[in-house]
Design brief:
Layout (H helix, E strand, L loop, with lengths): L1 E4 L10 E4 L9 E11 L1 H9 L15 E9 L11 E4 L29 E5 L3 E3 L6 H4 L5 H10 L9 E5 L3 H12 L3 E6 L2 H10 L3 E4 L6 H8 L5 E6 L6 H6 L1 E10 L17 H5 L3 E6 L4 H14 L5 E6 L3 H10 L5 E5 L2
Parallel strand pairs: 8-9, 8-11, 9-10, 11-12, 12-13, 14-15
Antiparallel strand pairs: 1-2, 3-4, 3-6, 3-15, 4-5, 5-7
Helix pairs in contact: 3-4
Amino acid sequence: MKSYHINKGAGLAGLTIREHDIPAPGPREVLVRVRASSLSFRELLILILGYYPLPIRPDVVPVAEGAGEVVAIGSNVTRVQVGERVAGAAFPYWMDGPFAWDSAAQLGGSLDGMLTEYAVLPEEGVAHIPEHLSFEEAAALPLVGVTAWNALTGGRPLQAGDTVLTLGSGGVSLCALQFAKLFGARVIATTSSEEKAERLKALGADDVVNYRTTPDWHVVVRELTGGRGVDQVVEVGGPGTIEQSIKSTRFSGEISLIGSLARDVSTSELPALGVLRAAIAGVVTLRSIAAGNRAQFLAMNRAIATHQLKPVIDRVFPFEDAHAAYRYYEDGQHFGKVIISHS
């Protein structure tokens, strides 16, 4: 078998491929023949920027998202059988409840990830994938999709008739748009071009604001909601957008700060942004999101299966062209997920 390996901050030249013996699963472990994996911003943070808030093991197999088929099981495995199609949970030991350090082991971080031909995973760390999804489509969801699901459901539960604001056209934002529509919510999205605006509308966005031609986009968001503001914001922009996100949010609304971007909006910085003085007093809730747990993964998959939803895929690269996939993702021109096919 072959697998890619990286070290934190090594850059794209540090993405190397090596051959190994196919591993055998131990007790309560499964061996997955990985058929597809998916890039996300965390992969650039680790390999290119050399930053990630959680431990990264030296020489780790990268990539937190992947899907494949079970080809062998260890003793005492009861959740899956050989031949079943599964996706790996990005946090395989985070079963339910809030994020905690004892469940922070992560694929492509402290654990080997999915940019490999075969992966050994704990049986609790895999989930059956919806039947209508291909391996490539299923690989787009374990981190990015679950993060969006957690953002919409893990705090103040989203309700039909609510209004959600999504920022840009990254993986989390696109999944949040699709999921919000499943709940019967109205979605206002921001983007950087008219071409992307049309694609967002085709996915179900009710209104789209071009933040390049309308720098004060929060004013338009307020106008679109009759001055009330949105119920939830899926905030992926960090310090560059947080103030406008708060200005876009209704009284007692919620803003989900996604992943490592949340580190840039520390409580010590909040008083420096005048409008956040009111936020500290409880006008809005700022909620930091670290992906999602197994229970949320399963709930998301049930909703996806029920509604026959498919994630947005921009481009698929073959396994041997993983370097090209990383370069393409780094260029930032994609709309939807960048997938690596291992088949």
